[in-house]
Amino acid sequence: MVSFDASESLTPFREGDAYGAILFDRKHVRQANPDWFVPEKWGDRAQPVDSGGRGGAWFIDAPSNHCVLRIYRRGGLAARFSRDRYLWRGPNRTRSFAEFRLTRALLERGLPVPRPVAASYVREGMFYRAALLMERLLDVRPLADLAHSQAGDAPWEASGRLIARFHRAGLDHADLNAHNILFDQKGHGWLIDFDRGALRIPATRWREANLSRLKRSLLKTRGERSVDEVNYDYARLRKAYDVAWARGF
After folding, report:
1. Which of 32, 158, 162, 171 could form a disulfide linkage to 166, CB 3.0–4.6 angstroms apart?
2. Catalytic entry in 172, 175, 193, 233
3. C-alpha triplet 172, 49, 40: angle, nearest 5°
C-alpha cells in the first residue's frame, strides 16, 4: 500500500446520514467538492464512456481540464448483491484512495499514466461507495480497437515494451486487458485503471498472470479475427516484452 505524503489534502464532508472524504493533491487542486463525483451535477458536461468497463465512467468537461470520472462498481456474482457498495475497512483501504495513491506513485517513477485529480468515498455503516476523478488522455485509442483498425498494424511490439517497463517498475496490474492499454497517433502509449493493483518486487508469477489476462482479453475481443491471428499478434507482443525485460528496460 502506498502511504500518505505531505502534498496530499483530505476534505471531509456529509451526505445525508452518511459521511465521506475527498483525497487530492494540493499542488494541482486548490479545493475539492463532493459534487465532482456525481455525474448528474455536471449536466451536459458529463458524457458516458462507451468503451470497456462496467458502465460506471463518464468523460467530464471540467472548467480547468478534461477529466474521466469513474464510479467503482462490482462485477460477477458480487454485483447481484450490491453494484457499488464495498465492505468498510478504513479510509486508507478504500478502492479510490488506494488507486489514487498508486497512480501518483507511478507518475513519480516517470511512467506514462493519467494524473489523478481527486478520490472520494461515502461511508454508510459497514459499507462505502467510492469514485475517482482522473485527467483524461485525449486523442488515444485502446489496443482493443487498434487490433481491428483498417488504418494499419496495431502497436503489438510497442505494447510489449510498455508492459515490460511497468513490470520492471514493480507494477502488478490487476486487470491488464486490451482496453487498458492506450496509444495516440504518434505511437505514445499509456496504461490506465490501476484498481486493486500494487507495487511489488518483480516476480515471474504475477508478471505471467498479467500477461495471461491480457491474452484472454485479446481473444475475448477478437471479433471477426481468427484465434490464430490473435495468437500470432500476441506472440509479437510477447517477444518484444521478453526482449525489453531481458535488457532491463
Report:
1. 171
2. 175
3. 115
- Place 78 in a pLDDT band, splitting at 50, 70 and 90: low
CB 41 within 8 A of CB 141: no
Distant-in-sequence, close-in-space partners of 209: CB < 8 Å, separation ≥ 6: none
Highest mean pLDDT: which range of 76-80, 82-86, 174-178: 174-178
DSSP sequence for 2-56:
PPP-TTEEEEEEEETTEEEEEEEETTT-S---GGGG-HHHHGGGEEE--SSTTS-
pTM: 0.93
Return d(Cα 201, Cα 106) in angstroms, integer.
Answer: 14
Q: Is 17 a catalytic residue?
A: no
The helix/strand/coil state of 162 is: helix
pLDDT of res. 1: 52
Helix, strand, coil content of the chain in percent (nearest 5): 35, 25, 40
- HSE, CB side, 13 Å, CA atoms: give it for residue 51: 16
